[in-house]
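FW: tagging you since you asked about this chain on Friday. Here's the raw sequence from the shared folder, copied in full. Didn't touch anything.
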Amino acid sequence: APNNNVATSGLQDTHPTQRYKAISLQAVDKVAEKHPALLPHLYDVKLAGMVFPFKASPYYVDELIDWEAEDVRQDPFYKLVFPTLDMLSDDHRAKLEAAYEEGDPKNLIRTVEEIRADLNPHPAGQKTLNA
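HL: got it, structure written out here
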């Protein structure tokens, strides 16, 4: 029988298509289980992740980050994927850590919102001009 497949190699795909599932901040503990080099940095990533949006591609996390590096925090893909407290000013970092240590969830949320407002005060009418 002739092969009527157009633009295919004729090879069967041996890997079933997996639905893309982003890694969220809530799943970062599972990433650390799989990649123990992240364990010492969980506090940093989780706290910074409260301020900065975090969603990671499993491909970046599992395939591109050099988890065997002497200091994984210096890996360019690690820097691209994971938020860190180094991304905050000393003042914002101190406020966030103090609110976290205090243990009051409402104050922590308020502090995160204040830091976000400082980082992006909606210049050029961002909130009023964008639909």
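FW: The CA atoms of residues 1 and 10 lie 13 Å apart.
HL: agreed, and The chain has a mean pLDDT of 87.
FW: great, closing this out.
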